[in-house]
Amino acid sequence: MTSCPPGAWRRNVSVLVWTPVLLLGPVLDVQGSTGSIVLQVTIIVVIAASAVTAALAGGPPWHDARAPLALSTLIAATVAGSTLESAQWLPTWVLLANALPSAIRGRWLLLAIPATTAGSMGAAWMVAPHDGTRVLTQGFVVVLAGLANAAFTALIDTVSELRRTRQELARVAVAEERDRFSRDLHDLLGHTLSVMVVKAQAVRRLVAADPAAAVAHAVDIEQIGRRALVDVRQAVDAMRSPTLAEEVAGACHALDAAGIATRVDGSPVVASGTADELLAWVVREGATNVLRHSGASTCRISLSDVDGRVALTIADDGMGAPPTSAPRVGGLAGLRERLAAVGGDLVVEPGDDGFRLVATVPGGRA
Asked: pLDDT digit string (tens) for 148-169?
């Protein structure tokens, strides 16, 4: 058995509330022979059951076939009740108009309300053919009930849609923040751990031949590890903002320790604000890739400011582009997203004579 759409009864609560009230007249009007009483009670029960079913089954996402079926049954029972030609049965047309928005919407609803109004006026004319006031009053009440409940259900649908939209926006915001944090954590620790690995390798090579140099590298590992702990704490607190000058100095130190001769052209103070922070991330990721993948002997970091856009180039003479077989959060893709968000771009130029990374962002110093 198909379950009712969640929250449908809230949307169509007016139908549920007014069903017993509007059926009170027909109930009090039950009279006549046994056959007639059975017929009247049957019609009342059918009207009540179909109205409640339409209210419970009708509503977004409009996939429950019971709602239009219940509405069709309600229409037939209401028309059948009108054949009794009693004024006590006229409120069933109000109930029908009230139930219309439960099962249909859009242009069909705009057609159904006038049709129901015309039917109710015809029923009123059958009861009192010479009482024009009663006929007009009946039509006014029915059209008012239909339009009022249509407006009410449209408002409820809008509120529900806004609530779903808000939940989706919150989900997307959480996902974006999770991606941002993953990217930041990768960019933050990838470089630091690579430097520690390089220095640990240096310690292993020098421990027998040059103990003093090995001790110096071990001290550097300890200091880098402590700094990494501080960086992680600050990243968790969303307080970590690297600076270009710090990252350039750190990259030179790490590359030199790995035996990669490094040259810096231009001043890190060429950038400011957001540009400074973004290029700091580029230097960190670029230096990490040189350490991990390039096998280079030289590296050049160039900074320039042309027409208000800062250009950063990291070029080495290694084996070319880093491997990209395993997709991951961060890395060059993460850098490209960061730069694109502020109107910048990232170009990678692998070649036989090395690897070249060019990042440009708006926001140079005047």
From this structure: 888 888 888 888 888 888 888 8
How long is the chain?
Answer: 366
CB-based contacts of 158, cutoff 8 Å, min separation 6: none
Give the integer Cα–Cα distance in Å for 179 and 306.
Answer: 32
Tokens of residue 78, six digits: 């209401």
- Domain C-terminal end among 168, 202, 228: 168
Residue 259 backbone zone (phi > 0: left; psi -120 to 50: alpha; other: beta): left
Would you state the structure tokens that stand for residue 357, as one six-digit string? 């990374």
Token representation of residue 20 = 């017993």
| pLDDT value for 259 | 82
Of residues 311, 259, 316, the one with CA closest to residue 290: 316
Strand partners, 314: 301, 357
- Structural domain harbouring 360: 243-366
Residue 363 lies in a domain: yes
pTM over the 0.70 mark: no
